[in-house]
Design a protein that fits this description.
46% strand; 112 residues; alpha+beta; single chain; globular; binds copper (II) ion
Amino acid sequence: MNIYLRQCALLCLYILSPFNAVNAAPPEFQLEIRDHLFLPDAIRIPADQKVKLVVYNRDPTPEEFESYELNREKVIMGNSKAIIFIGPLKPGEYPFFGEFNPTTALGKVIAE
Ligand SMILES: [Cu+2]
């Protein structure tokens, strides 16, 4: 095995090691869209840390997760899910809404 191959193998082992995966994976938070509402409508996340949001759209119609404060915009088709990475955020509140149902689909991320 030549030196480059060995370095590559070591790197792969490092990337795939469970220890590293646990350290590298951002914490995951889940929310749902149901009847054009976000459930829950407030999500508490740790400040100063990247976070993975998994948004399940339980409605048959598409919705768009939108937030000016988070600078995010993502269409989620009916009965499907989307993954949205946010942060690291300073402590505070970050509103979001469903652009297709902006009067009912309202929520906020609370970083603390
Ligand atoms: Cu939009």
